[in-house]
DNA-binding transcriptional regulator, AcrR family
Amino acid sequence: MTEDSAKERILSAAEELFAESGFEATPTSRIAERAGVPKGLVHYYFRRKSDLLAALVDRLPDEQIEPATVVVPGDLAGSLRRLVVELDRRFTGSLGLSHLLWREADTHHVVREALADRFQQLVRLVHSVIVGAAGGRLAVADVDNASGLLARAVSHRHATARHSRDDRPAEFDGELTFLANALSSKVRKAAPAD
Amino acid sequence: MTEDSAKERILSAAEELFAESGFEATPTSRIAERAGVPKGLVHYYFRRKSDLLAALVDRLPDEQIEPATVVVPGDLAGSLRRLVVELDRRFTGSLGLSHLLWREADTHHVVREALADRFQQLVRLVHSVIVGAAGGRLAVADVDNASGLLARAVSHRHATARHSRDDRPAEFDGELTFLANALSSKVRKAAPAD
Amino acid sequence: MTEDSAKERILSAAEELFAESGFEATPTSRIAERAGVPKGLVHYYFRRKSDLLAALVDRLPDEQIEPATVVVPGDLAGSLRRLVVELDRRFTGSLGLSHLLWREADTHHVVREALADRFQQLVRLVHSVIVGAAGGRLAVADVDNASGLLARAVSHRHATARHSRDDRPAEFDGELTFLANALSSKVRKAAPAD
Amino acid sequence: MTEDSAKERILSAAEELFAESGFEATPTSRIAERAGVPKGLVHYYFRRKSDLLAALVDRLPDEQIEPATVVVPGDLAGSLRRLVVELDRRFTGSLGLSHLLWREADTHHVVREALADRFQQLVRLVHSVIVGAAGGRLAVADVDNASGLLARAVSHRHATARHSRDDRPAEFDGELTFLANALSSKVRKAAPAD
DNA sequence: AATGAATGAGACTTCATTCAT
DNA sequence: AATGAATGAAGTCTCATTCAT
């Protein structure tokens, strides 16, 4: 069953190699080699090299995280922490993808758009988690701002993790707690008049 | 005045082109062309193409921002806002540089390190501004966390600004205010005896 | 019949050109030109230029001479003369090869070894012919010395023939006869009891 | 006094490098480097690269060997042995020269002629030594043949010594003795009537 | 459907040579 | 006299892409 089709193997090889060395620096011949297929087959399935990149973006896994799996109502800090743990896991599980998206975003609009989409998804996800954990007692603007801030910080953290030797994202608990406290203090302040 | 030396023109051309299309996708011949010099001269000054990249990183402007120029003690939100305005200006003024650093960080460790350096500088800068504006009445950990969060968010904002049509960084005031408030509320809470 | 495969034509062209102008002085483009193939094909078959040289040495014809074809027992001088005539014919028939070997021996160890091999073959061949023509009545040491001397002289004669306008080896009969006589006198002296 | 002029240092560097890597494979810049002179100076003294080769051949040391220094009348084998020892010493003392001459003889007629000259000198030298050691009792033809044979063998021996790791010429005493005996036997046979 | 031989444009780089100083 | 910046021709090699089978 792990006997992937040749086409699939080509795509995986391309993903790895584009992530390792970049699109331009990767010859199609090396893709064929790593996929263990004859050179001609790469161009048989993907006439031009850029078609490979497009196909790679198309098959982007849509691994949504379900807010419910990390949210504990009333425990904002914990919920955010669990969210980030989960995000980190996804990130580590598809490093090639992440490398690829960041690397080629500048020159391939297809990729750029995919990257932007993912960021928007992330913002919405953080938003949901905050709302789910803190209840509806927060000002909409505050939630928006916190979500934006956190999504950016998490994205940046992953983006720079790519650059480190072991691809492991940096410590982040302090920042998370700080943010959770900031929001929580708003809740209290927003509700004494109740 | 714009009569730069040939060597300088080559570097500028390389910076632009590497930023536009990436290192690999930029032929040295196009660099020579844009710099208006014969092809041989490029390799006379920079034996291999990668030497160009190294030179580009070496001459990285060290445009430090002086905290004092944006800090107004007591006005944290305003100070941060002025800081970001200034950072955005620097960013817009050297777009090529920023593109270059992010694009090539994955494959050229010189570049990667330069990018990491710049990030650390940014963290320290934000730190100084917060301390300068809020006085010494904040917990060290809070300042650290807020600085990290903000530096990451600002970096990410610039990194993704590269991907937009007009290179303009996204709106950010809301996030800034939120963060300033978060910190300010700590000050008050930390000094209830006042 | 002369419709050789492209690969074969490339090798022949390379052999000729390397012999004419030397390895370094021969552009691969000129090889392609003379072989009547597109430039890319040369590097398709032989990734690097030096692979061409290696291939050339590999396909070195192993044109052994069968001692029996020149030996007439009892006629040492005649046998040696027939041997040299035959060696000269081989030499003239593959001039390119000979040029090539001597020219590039200094810088390419593959070639150097091939040249050394050929010399050893030659020594053994001369040895066989002497023994075959003179019978077993000669001292081993004498045969060894004479073989070495003659093999060296013949090699040198071919090596310098390359340098002459018409590639024709110099007259050599006198030397041959002298050597045959030298050996023959030993036979008589070794068997005075006859 | 070892403070050679720049021009002299350039020539020596060229001789070494041409011998090591060949004429074509040696950039003039490397000659300048090894000579410790600025690049421009090489072409200041020798406008074209080939002028260097010509100059090198022009200044060829004419290290003639005086027959009297090795000849002991009556001792032919010893005389030849001493001659070869002396020739080997000259050879080892100017290896660069020898490499150079053999390497570039194929493509530069100036060099080719110099090499041929040296060979003729050698033939005459051997001739003188034989005559000196054996007296006038040998047939002219025999002396000619033996000289040619020996000169060729010695030349070949040096030519192939270049190809060995340590540039040391191979053992040769057996061959020499054999040749001396061959000649000596003629003397005896030629003079029984005395 | 699949393959790998074949192609040619073009990339990087080297280098002899010129020339202004 | 001496230098090293500058030039451009040319060399080796890579590679996406095509095509006959």
User: Anything to note?
Assistant: The radius of gyration of chain D is 20 Å. Residues 190-194 of chain D have pLDDT under 50 and may be disordered. The longest helix of chain D spans residues 109-134.
